Amino acid sequence: MTQIHISIRKPKTGGLDSVTGLMRFRPVRRHFDADKNLIIAASFDANLSETGELTVDLLPTTPAFVWQVVELADSPQAYTRYVEVPDSQARVEYADLVEVDAATFVPKDMTGSQLLKVRRASTQSEAETLSAQYPDVLVFFNETASVAKAAAIMSTLESITAEAQTNAALAKNAMLSARSSADSATATQSDLDVLASNASMAAASVANDSQTVADTASIVAAKGETAIAAIDSTVRAVKDKAEAATTVLPSTGTTEGTTDTGTTEETTEEPGKDSTPAKAKKATVKEA
Description:
Layout: E1 2-7, E2 9-12, E3 15-18, E4 22-28, E5 31-32, E6 38-39, E7 44-47, E8 53-58, E9 66-71, E10 79-84, E11 92-93, E12 98-99, E13 117-121, H1 124-133, E14 137-141, H2 143-248, E15 254-255, E16 258-259, E17 266-268, E18 276-278
Parallel strand pairs: 1-11, 13-14
Antiparallel strand pairs: 1-8, 2-3, 4-7, 4-9, 5-6, 9-10, 10-12, 15-16, 17-18
Region (Disordered): 246-288
């Protein structure tokens, strides 16, 4: 609502005098408001005060309607105006309202001139769309609402930027940690490579030593076999010589100072009995 201040005076000797009477207000043409309410063309009345003043709240006009104001209604001085009411938070003087033609709603001071078509939009984006759709029409929009919306968008972008910076810092820390872990892993791998190389060298040395021991053992075994073969050959030769000596030499022996000069076994056989050799008689030889 917009407050409209009305002050009516009449001339008198030496100055002006206040006028009392009835003011009648009626919206011209039925229309819908911003809340989708149907506003019918019904009038209401308001009385001027004793000082000839009146403050009334009126709906701001749109391209769909204007206000009809009947001054001093039902009196000989009645006069009808058709005016536009701006959307204002401050009080507006009745004398400053733009008077328009009742049929076309065109301001009277523009009669005969080229009409300027105007449309209203709620946002800047809607205004841009209407301007592209109606190039010969001037489109107005609520700049305050657009600025507030832009500020909200900027706040959201700042929040997104801050979050992105935080995520970038976390990613950088993670990268540094990963790089440190990679360096540690590289150092550990290097140590493992050194240990593996040392182990390989030790294994090769052990293998060489084992081969040397095996070769030495083979040589010793071969020499042992040769020595054993020589010993066997020597033993065989000694045995052969011993057997040969036993065959050539007569068997001799002495018992208790007696000398066996030879015995001849005599065999007597009796019928029905086993033959038993007769013991040979020994000759005793005394020493001189």
